[in-house]
Amino acid sequence: MVRFDTEVDKEREDWLGHRLDETNTAASPAMARLRGTPAEDDIPVHVYAVDDDGAVVGGLTGKVWGRWLHVDLLWVRADRRGKGLGADLLARAEETARTEHACGHARLETWDFQAPEFYRRQGYTLVGEVPDYPPGVTEYIFTKALR
């Protein structure tokens, strides 16, 4: 007999993450090779574009894990869009991931109303889509080789 507990619990979450890591390491030689290497850690990657007044006019945040760059957020202020700033932010993050963290690939998600065509122009390939996430929207998953 078991009971179900739905309380948010950081200690249990950490414990569960460790158990899953152990299981994954035992099940996958590729995951086992990551253990104990720098590629095992999440390393933040941030790039910000700042104007002469110190205002952030664009930025990108993401992380490196498993020799992949994962772009989480990319935003450019409306008056700076269409001028190459987003492409520059993305290129700088990719270069940092490639040269400082030996990443061979990048990945990201974007919604249909955001920037799928922008990412295609930057060399990203559509590898998946999730329809109706959230309802009425399609999420696209893109990857790019950084070599």
Task: Please render the helix and strand layout as text.
Layout (H helix, E strand, L loop, with lengths): L9 H18 L1 H6 L8 E8 L5 E10 L2 E9 L8 H17 L3 E7 L4 H6 L3 E6 L8 E7 L2
Parallel strand pairs: 3-4
Antiparallel strand pairs: 1-2, 2-3, 4-6, 5-6
Uncertain stretches of 5 or more adjacent residues: none
Mean pLDDT: 96
Listing every helix as H and every strand as E from the N terminus to the C terminus, the arrangement reads HHEEEHEHEE
Write out the strand line-up for the largest beta sheet, numbering strands in chain order. 1-2-3-4-6-5
| Shape by Cα distribution | globular
Per DSSP E runs of 2 or more residues, the count of β-strands stands at: 6
Cα-to-Cα separation, first versus last residue = 53 Å
Helix percentage: 25-40%
Structural class: alpha+beta
Total helical segments: 4
Integer-rounded radius of gyration: 18 Å
Task: Please provide a written account of the structure.
This protein has 147 residues and is α+β, with helices and mostly antiparallel strands. The protein contains 4 helices and 6 strands; from the N terminus they run ααβββαβαββ. A 6-stranded mixed β-sheet has the order 1-2-3-4-6-5. The longest helix is centred in the N-terminal third of the chain and has 18 residues. The relative contact order is 0.12.
